[in-house]
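Re: the request from the purification team.
They wanted to know what the chain is likely to look like in 3D before they choose a buffer screen. I agreed to run a prediction and write the result into the notebook, where they can find it.
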Amino acid sequence: MMYVFFQVDSIAYDTFLVSNGVGDNAYGIERVDPVGTIERFNYLTSLLIWSDQYANMINGTDGTMWHSNATKDERIYAFIPDICRSIYLTFNETRRNIADVDLYHYTLPHTIFSNSSENRGFCMNGTTFNNIYELQCLPDGLFTQAPCQHFGGSLSIPFPIIASNPHFLDADPIVLDAVEGMHPNDTIHRSFADIEPTTGSKY
C-alpha cells in the first residue's frame, strides 16, 4: 500500500493505492541464483524514465522474499512497479515472533525520499509543489510519480502524482504545513519487512 498525494487546480487530494496482488506488467527471470531477484521489468533490464543510470536500475526482488543468509549489515532491495523505482531497507533489530523464530527487522531509511545527491536522478525539471514555486527536486519526503503513472495509450499524459510515506513521515515541515490532519509517527508509519535470515522468507 502506498500513500499518494496529488494536486489539481490548487486543491490538494490524497488517497491510498491498494493492489489486489495481481501485477499488470510482464516479468521475467533467467537465473535461479539469486532466487527472487527481478532481472527484467517489461522486458527491460533497466528503466528508461529517470534522468540517470542509478535511478533507472532495477534492483532486488518483488518484496515477497529475499535471498538466503541475510546479514545485518546489508541493504535489502525491492523493485516497486507502482512507483517505478527500487527501494532498499536496512537492518533495525532482531525480533522473535510467536513461533519463537528470530527475524531480522529491516526498515525503510529516513532518506529514501530525501532531496539528496543519492536521489538526484529522480528529480524532474518543472516540478511544482503546492503552486508555491518551481523546482527540480521536491522537498524531503516527497517523490514524483509523473514519469511513471500515465493516462493510457500512445497519447499518454502523465498524472501529476506525488508519493510519500504515510502522514508525510520524514517530510520537510513545509509539506506538513501544507496539509491539515497529518500526524507522522515513526512506530506505526514506517515501512518494514521482517525476514527469517536463513531462508530469506518474509513474515
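For the purification team: DSSP finds two helices and 15 strands in the chain.
Please add any questions underneath this entry.
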